[in-house]
Inverse folding.
């Protein structure tokens, strides 16, 4: 006695954009009535531990790798069957929508307070700051304000803000001198 075969066994497809922070969704297709489906997402052809739901959230671990999904069908009296989707293009890091440049205000005189301001970055972006003298970081100058010192006389001062977020490309923006 031979096991039955599935009359409907479509190749699954993936919807979504292969960018960190995005969610990919499985479209399993229509299988024979009574079929039980199990899912396994794959990174570069290797199963991703715990990724067995209909949707998969892309993270920085996926960057540079194509993503696919395997659907395994079982049904009483039938031989189990697995189908693998086409792989996505390699996952890329997301980019920020808003990365405004900082602006320095204040008088460029000895012992004067300079202040850097900027418009809002994307939600959830962690920012760090640093002041630079002639292109070199000033030790300890990591706040939005800076009071000039003797070493600054004749130097060009700039302010730099670095934005980072998991799964995104880190961005550095510098002020005008």
């Amino acid at each position: 006695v031979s096991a039955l075969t599935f009359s409907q066994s479509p190749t699954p497809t993936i919807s979504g954009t292969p960018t960190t922070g995005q969610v990919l969704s499985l479209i399993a297709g229509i299988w024979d009535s009574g079929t039980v489906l199990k899912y396994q997402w794959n990174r570069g052809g290797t199963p991703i531990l715990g990724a067995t739901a209909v949707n998969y959230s892309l993270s920085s671990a996926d960057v540079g790798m194509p993503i696919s999904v395997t659907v395994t069908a079982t049904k009483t009296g039938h031989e189990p069957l697995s189908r693998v989707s086409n792989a996505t293009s390699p996952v890329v890091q997301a980019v920020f929508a808003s990365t405004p440049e900082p602006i320095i205000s204040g008088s460029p005189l000895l012992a004067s307070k300079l202040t850097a301001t900027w418009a809002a970055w994307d939600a959830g972006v962690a920012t760090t700051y640093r002041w630079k003298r002639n292109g070199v970081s000033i030790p300890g100058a990591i706040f939005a304000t800076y009071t000039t010192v003797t070493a600054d006389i004749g130097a060009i001062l700039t302010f730099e803000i670095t934005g980072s977020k998991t799964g995104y490309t880190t961005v550095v923006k510098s002020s005008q001198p």
